[in-house]
Amino acid sequence: MHGTSGLPPHVDASLDEPVASLWRARAKQHMSDTYMGVPMYKFPEDLRVYEHLLWMAAPQVVIELGSQFGGSALWFRDRLNALASYGRVTAPHVIAVDINPEVFQETLERHHPNALGQIDLLDGDVLDPSLPARVAEYIRPGERCLVVEDSAHVYETTHAALSGFARFVPPGGFFVVEDGCVDIEEMRLEESWPRGVLPAVSDWLREEGGKEFRQRRDLELYGISCHPGGYLQRTE
Fold first, then answer.
1. Architecture of the domain made up of 40-234
2. C-alpha closest to that of 77 among 46, 161, 67, 29
3. Cα dihedral 170, 181, 132, 139 sign
4. Cβ burial, residue 31 (10 Å; 0-12/13-18/19+)
5. N or C: lower Cβ tally within 10 Å for the chain?
6. Residue in 169, 165, 167, 166 with CA at minimum distance from that of residue 146
7. Pure H helices in 30-100
8. What is the dihedral sign for C-alpha 56, 221, 159, 107?
9. Are β-strands 145-149 and 174-177 bridged in parallel, bridged antiparallel, or unpaired?
10. Residue 90 class from Cβ within 10 Å (0-12 exposed, 13-18 middle, 19+ buried)?
11. Helix (H) or strand (E) segment spanning residue 158
């Protein structure tokens, strides 16, 4: 799937081509990318933003809704451990929720079994109203959380994730809704892509639970992002 080198396909960036062409090539490329030998479908630019958010908000816990193969959960675990090594956080861990956790479990057991000690893997659907209470059982009193919504990228799941999990974000903390690019026509690679992320974010921000959050478009720092409009910060 990823070749013997473990590297994704090369992308040529021509100065004569529009940014849209680069976006399309990069979007195709990132579906073949890996982290520590495990598939991880995230742009480097967005991962760099996450590093800034983790340093700024200093969460002990990352709640990832939609974990697929486990590459990004592993990446978050490693970034939290880096924060701990600098004395920024203590006892960090990741809570990974997926509707099909067997793939995650098998992949990490095969590649990095020791990592599972800091990753709590839950079988769950964000549309299940009991899921937030189940997740809360894995969070110790006083722990700060960063929430990542990366599930089905449709209106219903995005809205349910925001409604159910914003409660875990402390003042000054972040909730990141991934892949709002599906709702921007110029960024859509295929008609089969889902839709509804950005309308759900927009509607939720006008609701009572969303009034404590603000959209941080200024955090789309590196010119290309899969998450336009998705960086949300709880007010202090």
1. 3-Layer(aba) Sandwich (3.40)
2. 67
3. negative
4. exposed
5. N
6. 169
7. 44-57, 71-85
8. negative
9. parallel
10. exposed
11. helix 155-165
- Has residue 20 got a pLDDT over 80? yes
Token pair belonging to 199:
């309308």
- The pLDDT of residue 114 is 92
Closest CA to 83 of 117, 54, 112: 54
Which residue type sits at 25?
A: A
**pTM exceeding the 0.90 threshold for the entire prediction:** yes
Q: Which amino acid is at 35?
A: Y
Region 119-146: mean pLDDT is 98
- Could you identify the residue written with the tokens 């992002």? 225
> Domain spans of the chain?
40-234
Token pair 């701990």 in the structure block, residue: 84
Here the tokens at position 220 are 């789309």
Structure confidence at residue 3 (pLDDT): 41
What would the pLDDT profile of 224-233 be if each residue is shown by its tens digit? 999 999 999 9
Residue 131 contacts residue 97 (beta carbons within 8 Å): yes
Report the side by side order of strands in the sheet with 119-123: 119-123, 93-98, 61-65, 145-149, 174-177, 231-234, 213-215
Tokens of 82: 């880096």
